[in-house]
Amino acid sequence: MLSIPFNSPFSTGNEWQYIQDACKEGKLAADGKYTNKCQQFFEKKYGFGKAYLTHSCTQALEMAALLMDLKPGDELIVPSYTYVSTANAFALRGCKIVFVDSRSDYPGIDELQLEHLINDKTRAIVAVHYGGIACDMDLLTSITKKHNLFLIEDAAAAIDSYYLGADKNPKPLGSFGHFATFSFHETKNISCGEGGMLVVNDANFLEKADEVWNRGTNKKAFISGQRKKYEWVSLGSAFAPSEINAAWLWAQLEEMDAIQEKREKIWNWQQNNLPNLLAHYDLDWMNIPSHSIHNFHLFYGLAKSLKQRDELLNHLRQKGILAVFHYQSLHASPYNLSLVGQGQRQHLIQADKYSERLIRFPLYTDLDTENLRELISS
Ligand SMILES: *Cc1c(COP(=O)(O)O)cnc(C)c1O
């Protein structure tokens, strides 16, 4: 039995009450009271253009791919060190995924390696805010503007994170891209089990986003009386989650400040204590760049080698603590190698480094740090 799991979903206690209230409203399908409460929360608090709840961040990325009207052969530049969905959503539309390496100082996209990957087939850059840590958005927005590309922020883990640019005015992640995507999977700071959200900041896409979100129909325009018939008008899918999910999510959003405070305490504890408690392993510890105001999503260290990382993971497991590695770089994935050919494996030095040596410690809202200290010292 593990005493400290890697993750444990947090609930505020109000979730059930809101689900019962949604039942009383007499509407459990999508786009009701709680969906709107959640979407407006993001639009008001962070100034996002328009928010659409989805069943996952994966789906939000797929919805962005449909909105951009991507065609087979179009190219997207994507960091290799990320979750599968960042690439898969665009590969589904027949696009070519061009992988770029991470930075040496933290796992975000290496902005300086982007320009030589851009050609006349390139349509977009997908920037992943790794672990809620901002990419260099001044650089990314200037590159995408200069080459007339879409900028998509995969902000799956970046709720309530900010970028501090040259103007020294913190701006929320998710407010820079034409599109931004978030996750409410149970491993993220705010969750409803499985859930996500697409943010559309480019107003040109709003009418189409309503259609794609509503299974490719003009349902929204029909209900508001702008159209006479309810018809199939574009490609789309059933992207909108039920009011049950949205009610659960609302209970969490309402308590977001309290949740973030708890996580901040745990993150600070880990930063102050893990280097001493695990001094024997001499890890390189997580580095937060000065342009990032992060959200206490994760805490990691870098082992000296793959072998040392596995030793530490085993050591912790024997003490009842489940730490994990994550992101096996996509350029070296079985699926990508089946596309490009086994002999064509790229060598992205930083992505390979993080895949082999990064170790994530358990960090969840109710984590008991004293228990963690006792287990490690046992
Ligand atoms: C969690 C995560 C996803 C996937 O989110 P789901 O909601 O589980 O689909 C995608 N990208 C990144 C960077 C993530 O961290």
Automatic annotation (TrEMBL):
Q: Which residues form the active site?
A: K188 (proton acceptor)
- Write down which residues bear the modification named N6-(pyridoxal phosphate)lysine: K188
At the top level of its lineage, which domain of life is listed?
Bacteria
UniProt keyword list = Aminotransferase, Pyridoxal phosphate, Transferase
Signal peptide (UniProt feature, chain positions): none
GO MF term (any one): dTDP-4-amino-4,6-dideoxygalactose transaminase activity
Q: Name one GO biological process term.
A: polysaccharide biosynthetic process
Which CDD domains does its entry note? AHBA_syn
Q: Which family does it belong to?
A: Belongs to the DegT/DnrJ/EryC1 family.
Could you tell me which NCBIfam families the record lists for this protein?
PRK11706.1 (NF008687)
Q: Identify this protein by name.
A: 4-keto-6-deoxy-N-Acetyl-D-hexosaminyl-(Lipid carrier) aminotransferase
Organism the protein comes from: Cyclobacterium qasimii M12-11B
